[in-house]
Amino acid sequence: ARNACGDAGQAAAQDFDALVAAIAGFEGCPLRHEGAATQAVVFRGDPKAPLMVIGEAPGADEDVLGQPFVGRAGKLLDRMLTAAGLQDRVLITNTVYWRPPGNRTPTQAEQAICAPFVERMIALVKPRMLLLAGGASAKSMLRREEGILSLRGRWLEWKSSDGALE
Fold it and tell me: What are the residues facing 51 on neighbouring strands?
């Protein structure tokens, strides 16, 4: 179920900076107080990018530095984006904005609390394509139960929960 505070906060964000501020100030996600050591990890990259990468959750390095995908996995992602000529044409974020305790996978409930923010970010960035990095991200964003092995490498259509965005 969605959190009413998340819905209200994301709806009030009329631009990207306001959305980032709403996320940073959001108190409705339990991860903010359970796992995160320092701050909300919202995004890195170009807010006008044609490609949006959505991972699962921040890890320890991301929590300290305040940006997603800056650890070992992020360095690999950066090398892949560079090889594809996309290094300056991407915005990177996650399905949740605070590190889960012990770097565990975020729960569906935690992802649902943050989903209005993720959807508002997609609406503001208007990317041409979403790249969902990881099983939890794919399941959450696509609202599907298949495992990562059956979803990997497939082109799928994404729609916002209210059907307004495709």
Answer: 90, 129
